[in-house]
Amino acid sequence: MTAGTRRTLLLIPLxxxxxxxxxxxxxxxxxxxxxxxDFLPGELTSESWRSLLDGNRLAGAAGTSLAVAAxxxxxxxxxxxxxxxxxxxxxxxxxxxGAAAAFLPVxxxxxxLATGLQLALLTLGLGGTYPGVxxxxxxxxxxxxxxxxxxxxxxxxxxxxxxxxxxxxxxxQIWTRVLAPMLRRPxxxxxxxxxxxxxxxxxxxxxxxxxxxxTLPVExxxxxxxxxxxxxxxxxxxxxxxxALAIALGLSARRSEPAPL
Amino acid sequence: xxxxxVLRASVVLLLSGCSGETKxxxxxxxxxxxxxxxxxxxxxxxxxxxxxxxxxxxxVDRWVAPRLRQRYGITLHTVExxxxxxxxxxxxxxQAGAMGSADLVWINGEAFHNLREADLLYGPWAHRLPNxxxxxxxxxxxxxxxxxxxxxxESPWGAVQFALIYDSARTPHxxxxxxxxxxxxxxxxxxxxxxxxxxxxxxxxxxLYALNxxxxxxxxxxxxxxxxxxxxxxxxxxxSLRPAFWRGGAAYPPGVAELHRLFANGEVDFSMxxxxxxxxxxxxxxxxxxxxxxxxxxDGTIANTHYLGxxxxxxxxxxxxVVANFLLSPEAQLEKLKxxxxxxxxxxxxxxxxxxxxxxxxxxEAASHALPLDSLTKYARPEVAPEYHERLAADWxxxxxxxxx
Amino acid sequence: xxxxxxxxxxxxxxxxxxxxxxLVGVGYAVAAxxxxxxxxxxxxxxxxxxxxxxxxxxxxxxxxxxxxxAAATALATAGAVLLAVTFRGTxxxxxxxxxxAVLPMAVPHLVxxxxxxxxxxxxxxxxxxxxxxxxxxxxxxxxxxxYDPWGTGFxxxxxxxxxxxxxxxxxxxxxxxxxxxxxxxxxxxxxxxEVFRRVTWPMLWRGxxxxxxxxxxxxxxxxxxxxxxxxxNPLPLPLLTFERYTxxxxxxxxxxxxxxxxxLAISAAAVAxxxxxxxxxxxxxx
Lengths: 261, 405, 286
Description:
heterotrimer; A: mainly alpha; MetI-like fold; B: alpha/beta; D-Maltodextrin-Binding Protein, domain 2; 3-stranded antiparallel beta sheet; 11 strands; 45% helix
């Protein structure tokens, strides 16, 4: 099999795998009665989309998700950048421990993480509130961001900073004149990463939010469990589109700056 | 340390975002009703209820909520939650000493049992509602929730009855008793199953009553011996039919929604529902085919009431009581009964209603029910002690996981 | 900042803060599992832990969870490597293929699971396509791919969902450090297959290993996807945990925390493995 044939043979299932699920969701979101063995829905209805425009629960949940995810991204990157940098400057077992500590909330089963968080947040009076859920999302997001920036700072040449310092630059100047320009794209990528971690989060929102904080994935799960496929599919598409945009933006930014950081 | 300063600032900012309403909750327990309504005016009530059905949501959001605002000055916030979640949440709140996140909760059976045992409910209050006078208090299915006296700790909201669902196009002559069902399953292997959730367990209870001489065998509290002997017959019945179940009885749909999907798509020929009228709303929503019909088992099906409770740590019990009273009103119960709204049974006794209302109820009941009212009454059986439900569910799950590689 | 003064100081405060909620959760789980707090808590006792760990259903659930996570991770990794190696060029087709491979990353795994239920059910989309093609004329002539004991649908859904992430990692590795070593090998006369085996694959593997471990532990802890696709028997560990957590018998609820600790043990192993893999990758890049 030539390389060319292999490429073509792979492109077809690749395209199908990428696009078919979205197409299925789109069809389901406008399908009226649609039972086996009909390949295409017999009746169409725009009910779930119209209801969305009327400002139904999905719309509200989308707004909530946007706000929470944006706040999570801000918190995670603000704390994750210095943390990643600090970890990069450590040596030996300290770096291992620090990186492991950052990865722990990412790897832990959500119910363990949530129980710990729930007690703390309930005592602080944040249970079932938006700040509480944001804080909860920020924990794994911070873990991802810290590990990401650890990688970034490991690849950064420390000599650049040392030179600037030896030339008399203050700490502020080092950050704003030297590091910031180099970090612009990683910061953007980390914001997208942290945003997506919060955007798609389900278990933490359910357990910390206690049903009061309705994010988009939580609503979609509720519709799926209730058998309301049409509303679930509409919500699912709402979940996918902003995420796809963010990823596409991140990818194109990556391509326009060829020098690897 | 920059990171430290940023962290501290963030925490302060976020904490200040928390609305700390620490006003002492007014205990409406001793107040006359006018005072309760006055206290409730201008407040908001958070109601934790199952939000999985658009028809129910439409009734609550678009019919109940505006009227509450207009007539009582109450702003209604609905929040998703079902029995076990609600119990867990209230337990955790009690442990942490936190203020209540819900003023009103939609519960029945197991949840009520757990909440009462853990002393998490406010009460008694339900008998103080003016509209409680219309409730069908003679009905054993309303006054006792899974055989536990409600004692005024929960107010009835709606009444449903368990029914199978079949497709009149595929199954023109459906079985009518458990014995006929068994024969049907044998003749049509792979076309029947039940779900793993509440509805599936209710089906097991229907089997329990039918195979053991009726519900009377199990009334009067939970008795382990009776349960043991009774459930043995259920397991025997199921085991003898298991190879003829869908997927050979090796897999079961996780919930009733998935069972509806299997039924609608022709993988199985029966679905089931806690509400005999769910067929009406599900056909309208396009979830079930137009030829779907409800089916009562002549051995008896379980009639079940669902209720509203007020958590002990609720911030606004007065408001919750006013909402519950409105939901109990003839106007709200009639609206809820309409097939194009929710088709949920009324808990009011028609003879007790003022004549104008009584007439409307009778007309609606005669016209709308997919099943004749006298059949419903004839085959209705009450719930028994919650332990039967819990043990059946747990033992069934253990049994299907015991076998197999 | 502490770290400015060199690596002699303690691990940064914020790292510990990130780990703190999980550690509190671990502490709570240990306390609840051993009876120190919560319902059914009658003082420290290892009875409950022993009892739960002796249950057959727990081990079968654990093996199912680990097995399906391994299978899904392996599939996704193999797919990512294949795609990275096949479409590493700069032409339009290559860029299009890479974009298509990464795009599904936008789909949350909850949605991926829901889509695969609709796709792979015996009366699902695939079945209807086969019906239209005249191949399978009834739902039961279609193999059972969801709710099946092997977890086929679950494995496929999660492999599909994680493929974009691993592909992105693989693409990046090949783009940033691929050519040099491979050129050297080729110039020394190695055949394409050998170049792959001795240069490309080890380089890729070392680079994506941290990601592979992260994917594994993520799939193993997945609840929503399991709820929608998993069989009733064996029951995956996260579902079993949730079942005990919401058990109507309040006395049984602390069982859930024993299972949480089992899950945490998997996570701890994954964290250790991930850190080992990450430092290997790091030393390779240095």
